[in-house]
Write a structure and sequence with these properties.
Number of helices: 14
Structural class: mainly alpha
Radius of gyration: 25 Å
Order of helices and strands: HHHHHHHHEHHEHHHH
Largest sheet: 2 strands, parallel
Strand order of the largest sheet: 1-2
Helix content: 55-70%
Number of strands: 2
Length: about 300
């Protein structure tokens, strides 16, 4: 209930009238099913918030990580995503809209509605990088390379992906998406800010609590600058604290990715070392003591 009173949650839904809370609720619902290892058909349908918002694709790398690391579900379960997307477009088609206009609405949104490398979103592109058409492909390739590198690390140490590390891994993917992808709005960090607040309240680590507090304050300033034309701080100054929070979140979440690879190597190197029973250790000690006594007598 405390999450409902966060500033960016109230401003995004009640004041701005955006639907970020709806698709985030479905995505976190599917995340909860994965963490509880309750993978059923209803949980697979909850993985499909794509008809509500294109930004739901930010969760896709995490679900791919989970599938290849855990193998607790079938690859066919991912077919529910296009199935739900096709089913959600049927009412518009029955009302007379063209199927191409219905199912290619996201393509038109990406190609026509986005002409800025960042829209009030404090990320890496806020440092004077303003040419969207030049940086669009490069930003997508860089983000894909980062996700693929993390995928290789996760595969090497899948045994360390417990409940806490899975939440950190999901938080890492969301932060990476909003930091490296071009054309981000200030409201696109809604799921990452919400998940960061959930993690901070659940584990109450001091560093994460501080990061969650700073993110909520920065989101409040960016929302107020757009909704009420109130600039509490210049937008350029918001970039540095947000980058600090994002880097701190990456630094806190990255060990669950890096340590997974290290733990697997340690596990393989220690497979040949078997523990010696206590009885054998005691017998070896007694044998050594008897040899010493015989040498002393001689």
């Amino acid at each position: 209930m405390a999450l409902l009173f966060l500033p960016f949650v109230f401003l995004n839904s009640a004041v701005w009238g955006q639907c970020d809370s709806i698709y985030t609720a479905f995505a976190i619902m599917s995340l909860t099913h994965l963490l509880q290892e309750k993978i059923t058909k209803p949980s697979c349908c909850s993985v499909s918030p794509c008809p509500l918002k294109l930004q739901a694709i930010f969760f896709l790398p995490f679900f791919l990580y989970y599938y290849f690391a855990k193998k607790r579900c079938s690859i066919l379960h991912f077919l529910y995503i296009p199935a739900v997307y096709l089913a959600a477009g049927l009412p518009a088609i029955f009302c007379g809209r063209s199927p191409l206009d219905t199912y290619l609405v996201y393509r038109l949104q990406v190609t026509h509605d986005t002409d800025s490398v960042t829209r009030n979103m404090p990320n890496l592109y806020s440092f004077g990088l303003a040419d969207y058409y030049v940086l669009k492909t490069a930003g997508i390739l860089i983000a894909a390379a980062v996700f693929f590198a993390a995928f290789l690390w996760v595969l090497k140490g899948r045994e360390r992906l417990d409940l806490k590390n899975l939440m950190l891994l999901c938080l890492w993917t969301l932060l990476t998406a909003v930091m490296f992808l071009p054309g981000m709005h200030e409201r696109y960090d809604y799921p990452s800010s919400l998940l960061l607040s959930v993690y901070a309240l659940a584990y109450r680590e001091k560093k994460i609590l501080l990061c969650a507090l700073l993110v909520n304050l920065i989101d409040l300033m960016t929302y107020c600058s757009f909704l009420f034309y109130t600039t509490l701080l210049p937008p350029d100054l918001l970039v540095l604290p947000y980058l600090f929070v994002s880097s701190a979140g990456h630094a806190h979440a990255a060990p669950c990715v890096v340590q997974t690879g290290r733990s697997s190597r340690k596990g393989r190197s220690q497979q040949g070392l078997r523990p010696v029973p206590r009885g054998k250790i005691r017998r070896s000690v007694c044998v050594r003591q008897n040899l010493r006594k015989r040498k002393a007598i001689l």
